[in-house]
């Protein structure tokens, strides 16, 4: 969870993620973790800036050969 997604925007001060969306995200992550656990796997969840958290996680795991990610799509006004 990137803390920057829970702060106000730079233009209007509205939260990027409100309480309803946050609840949906938390419930979705819990459901995904439960589903993976039933299949013998797990889900790693971290809080922090992805550019820091991913680097730390790779260092902890030690044997990472690939990292896959997506970039947030931003609309233009």
UniProtKB/TrEMBL annotation:
Residues 1-77 form the Photolyase/cryptochrome alpha/beta domain. SUPFAM superfamilies: Cryptochrome/photolyase, N-terminal domain (SSF52425). Coiled coil: none annotated. One of its GO terms (biological process) is photoreactive repair. InterPro entries: Crypto/Photolyase_N_sf, Cryptochrome/DNA_photolyase_1, DNA_photolyase_N, Rossmann-like_a/b/a_fold. GO terms for molecular function: damaged DNA binding; deoxyribodipyrimidine photo-lyase activity; FAD binding. The keyword Ligase does not apply. It comes from the Eukaryota. Pfam families: DNA_photolyase. Keywords: Chromophore. This is CRYD protein. The lineage of its organism: Eukaryota, Metazoa, Chordata, Craniata, Vertebrata. The gene is Crydash_0.
């Amino acid at each position: 969870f990137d803390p920057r997604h829970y702060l106000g925007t730079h233009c209007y001060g509205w939260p990027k993620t409100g309480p309803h969306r946050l609840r949906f995200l938390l419930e979705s992550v819990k459901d995904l973790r439960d589903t993976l656990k039933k299949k013998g796997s797990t889900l790693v969840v971290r809080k922090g800036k992805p550019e820091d958290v991913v680097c730390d996680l790779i260092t902890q795991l030690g044997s990472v050969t690939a990292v896959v990610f997506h970039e947030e799509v931003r609309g233009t006004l």
